[in-house]
Recover the amino acids of this structure.
């Protein structure tokens, strides 16, 4: 077991980040809002953590204090929240595709800033961000609770009044509006929750990857995170978790297959290069044949029924 | 700023702005007829640049699967540009058939179509990168024949040097805009296109086949996008591999929001404004040049979401 964790620890923790980033895209989608801003907040959170841990709160000990990392995540979440509200209010008054466009612009502006500012290290980025754990597996101490907590909160959210309002807006914003719901408020709320999550994941990821640069927040990543949600399923929070984990692990699996002997060289090279091609195809085919993703609420219900041995009888 | 430099920057801005304009018209045409942003338009821009590069005699670099391959024949730049743009138009039709039509026939959520076009863009760009590599391609020096590399519009003491390629870009773009304005505003076909854009159902009752015009729109859109890509490629080389189209595609969003989504004159004005704005960025801040289109986009969403020339729409239940 220890051996397994040592060799696959990095990958396992990476799949958790994938699941969390998928959820950060899923949150605005709950209210029907297509936001491509997650890589922006993710990159922002990472820069906050990188700058705090290398310049503001440097630590000379062997491992970086765990508390500091949590503090950075808090700061990153807070900054992301404020920025999301500032960005969300003007943009989310508008209906339809404006959020998608505005969030693309947001990601690009942040990327250009990161490339040009001195504090972000320009094109090179920030190096040797201190490690709170001795090995990548240690990050499970943060990744696992964060994922479980987020999933529990989302489960509760879906049952709550707010969750129902989100769904109402997704189904028909105008109708929800006429029922006395303030769509802008709830749209900004869902967008902000997603932003906080992405910012926090970014903060801990900066430590995890040890280095942080402008490549973390690109348009490509926007589409990749979207692929997590769309292939997994956008109607229940289980979908993005499954999608994020599977698609994060997929390139690694492909690489392993490519290294197996007997596969022609060009096919091996193709498997290495094809990660983004596969994601693109998944998105196109998924939106055509599985517009709800693989994990749908109906599937979950069926699973629930299958596992329940004795169906409860309602006595009247 | 001294007047010579001003004029020089102004002409630079006009030249790049006119490319933005024809590129954005391609974007906005599809939006006007389907109400969807075609994110694969940036990928078509890339395709246009590569098609034209290979047709004008360029060889594949050493990194891709097709390393060192070159066409056994080569065309003059004008013909390569025309053929490359036609091929881009056909590619756009293929994208429509594969990524748009199936969803449209199902009556799917427009948001889903937008997502599907994102996926298509990702596939095209990465397949291309796999085939021809991610290196920088530069059009050969002599593509314009005997024309000098730059022309002096000023006097001998106060030169205003303009690169020939920029004059060509501006000229070609202006001609395209002229043809489009005539084609859409004054021909039977163009009027039918406007009718489909206004209301596809009513247009079909009047004997216009909307599907035919959607295909036509994608062809024109791809033609313009591919041509813009080829022109930019011939001017500043195909830098950063196939992804350079994605960068322009994203910038194009700024242009169409500035002009008003679905508004053709708006896209032309928007392209010019953003081209000029970029040209006048002080050299100290040139690193931020790429953010200008997006900053303008934000300002527009704040103050005038319907765009400079757009009319605000009343949403009906």
């Amino acid at each position: 077991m220890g051996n397994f964790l040592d060799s696959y620890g990095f990958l396992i923790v990476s799949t958790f980040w994938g699941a969390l980033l998928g959820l950060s895209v899923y949150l605005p989608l709950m209210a029907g809002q297509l936001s491509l801003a997650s890589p922006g907040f993710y990159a922002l959170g990472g820069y906050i953590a990188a700058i705090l841990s290398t310049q503001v709160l440097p630590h000379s000990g062997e491992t970086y204090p765990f508390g500091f990392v949590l503090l950075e995540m808090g700061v990153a979440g807070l900054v992301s929240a404020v920025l999301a509200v500032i960005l969300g209010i003007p943009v989310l008054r508008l209906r339809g595709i404006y959020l998608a466009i505005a969030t693309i612009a947001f990601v690009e502006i942040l990327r250009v800033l990161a490339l040009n500012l001195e504090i972000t290290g320009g094109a090179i980025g920030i190096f040797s961000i201190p490690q709170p754990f001795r090995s990548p597996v240690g990050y499970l101490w943060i990744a696992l609770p964060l994922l479980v907590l987020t999933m529990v909160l989302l489960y509760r959210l879906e049952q709550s009044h707010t969750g129902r309002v989100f769904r109402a807006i997704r189904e028909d914003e105008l109708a929800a509006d006429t029922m006395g719901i303030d769509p802008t408020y709830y749209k900004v709320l869902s967008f902000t929750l997603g932003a906080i999550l992405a910012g926090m994941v970014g903060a801990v990821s900066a430590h995890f990857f040890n280095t942080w640069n402008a490549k973390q927040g690109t348009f490509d990543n926007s589409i990749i995170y979207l692929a997590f949600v769309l292939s997994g399923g956008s109607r229940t929070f289980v979908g993005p978790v499954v999608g994020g984990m599977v698609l994060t692990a997929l390139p690694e699996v492909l690489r392993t297959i490519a290294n197996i002997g007997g596969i022609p060289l060009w096919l091996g090279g193709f498997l290495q290069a094809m990660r983004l091609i596969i994601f693109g195809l998944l998105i196109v085919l998924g939106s055509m044949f599985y517009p709800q993703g693989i994990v749908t609420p109906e599937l979950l219900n069926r699973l629930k029924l299958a596992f329940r041995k004795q169906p409860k009888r309602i006595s009247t | 700023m001294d007047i010579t430099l001003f004029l020089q920057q102004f002409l630079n801005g006009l030249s790049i702005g006119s490319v933005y304009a024809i590129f954005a018209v391609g974007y906005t045409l599809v939006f006007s007829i389907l109400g969807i942003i075609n994110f694969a338009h940036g990928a078509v821009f890339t395709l246009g640049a590569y098609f034209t590069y290979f047709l004008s005699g360029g060889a594949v670099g050493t990194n891709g699967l097709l390393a060192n391959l070159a066409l056994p024949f080569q065309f003059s730049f004008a013909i390569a540009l025309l053929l490359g743009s036609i091929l881009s138009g056909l590619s756009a039709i293929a994208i429509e058939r594969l990524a748009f039509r199936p969803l449209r026939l199902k009556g799917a959520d427009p948001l889903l179509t937008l997502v599907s076009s994102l996926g298509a863009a990702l596939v095209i760009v990465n397949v291309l990168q796999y085939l021809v590599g991610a290196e920088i391609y530069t059009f050969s020096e002599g593509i314009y024949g005997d024309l000098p590399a730059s022309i002096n519009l000023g006097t001998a003491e106060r030169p205003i040097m303009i690169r020939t390629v920029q004059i060509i870009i501006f000229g070609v773009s202006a001609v395209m805009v002229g043809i489009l304005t005539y084609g859409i505003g004054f021909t039977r076909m163009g009027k039918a296109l406007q009718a489909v854009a206004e209301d596809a159902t009513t247009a079909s009752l009047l004997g216009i086949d909307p599907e035919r015009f959607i295909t036509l729109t994608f062809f024109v859109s791809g033609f313009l996008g591919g041509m813009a890509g080829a022109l930019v490629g011939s001017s500043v080389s195909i830098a950063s591999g196939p992804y350079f189209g994605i960068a322009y595609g994203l910038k194009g969003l700024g242009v169409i929001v500035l002009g008003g989504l679905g508004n053709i004159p708006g896209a032309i004005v928007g392209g010019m404004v953003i081209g000029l704005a970029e040209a006048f960025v002080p050299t100290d801040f040139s690193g931020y040049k790429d953010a200008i289109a997006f900053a303008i986009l934000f300002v527009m969403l704040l103050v005038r979401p319907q765009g400079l020339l757009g009319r605000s729409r009343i949403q009906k239940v």
In short: Chain A has a mean pLDDT of 87. The first helix of chain A runs from residue 2 to 30. Chain A touches chain B through 47 residues (CB under 8 Å).
